[in-house]
Amino acid sequence: MPIMPEHRWLYPIDWPELSKLIRFGRAGGRCEHCRRPHGARVFHLGDGRWWDADRRQWRDGRGRRIRVAGANVAEAVRLTRVYIACAHLNHDPTDNGPRNLAALCQRCHMIHDGAEHRRRRWYNAYRRRALGDLLAMLDDRAALPITGVPRGTPVRLTA
Fold first, then answer.
1. How far apart are CA 25 and CA 83, in angstroms?
2. If phi over 0 gives left and psi between -120 and 50 gives alpha, with beta otherwise, what is residue 146?
3. Along the 159 residues of the chain, how does pLDDT read in single tens digits?
4. 63-72: per-residue pLDDT in tens?
5. How far, CA to CA in Å, does 34 sit from each of 42, 50, 57?
6. Which run of H or E residues covers position 150?
7. Reduced to 3 states, what is the DSSP secondary structure of residue 87?
8. Separation of alpha carbons 128 and 131, rounded Å
9. CA 133 from centre of chain
10. Segment 11-46, tens digit of pLDDT
11. What's the pLDDT at 143?
12. What keywords would UniProt list here (predicted)?
């Protein structure tokens, strides 16, 4: 996944090489959680089960072989291209030790980051709400009736 420009300074200079080493050197171009291959178009059922074309078998969300029963599989199957990204397991981009980095496909990466994304979404909403309350209070003070001052003149309000 591309790094946001405002967060680029958190990553080491050699991040592209380090990421490639984890994704293709250590993980062999496969997701370390579910074993989906990088760059391949994979048939999946949307719940983590996917078709491993190399081994000609269905696998679950952890990469284990499973059996899929039923004729309705053809109706539920979807096709997705897999992209492997290097993920920080503790969500700290300054911690680049090999034990903290994992090669994850987009599905496993979103599952892993879900709790952190929910925490950040709550924090940002809380911050915006607090800022909105502050600005609303300032707007209420500015709406006080002030007489005898020409429009457009800066006014200093005292509490």
1. 16
2. beta
3. 578 888 888 889 999 999 999 999 999 999 999 999 999 999 888 888 888 888 888 888 888 888 876 667 777 888 999 999 999 999 998 899 999 999 999 999 999 999 998 998 999 888 888 887 777 666 655 555 555 556 666 656 555
4. 888 887 666 7
5. 12, 9, 14
6. none
7. strand
8. 5
9. 29
10. 899 999 999 999 999 999 999 999 999 999 998 888
11. 56
12. Plasmid
- As given in the structure block, the two tokens for residue 34 are 């579910």
Burial of 109 (0-12, 13-18, 19+ CB in 10 A): buried
Residue type, 143: A
- The CA-CA-CA angle for residues 30, 31, 34, to 5°, reads 115
* Distance from C-alpha of 114 to C-alpha of 53, rounded to nearest angstrom: 29
Q: Residue 103's pLDDT is what?
A: 97
User: Residue holding tokens 């370390």?
Assistant: 32
**Alpha-carbon gap, residue 53 to 30, rounded angstroms:** 13
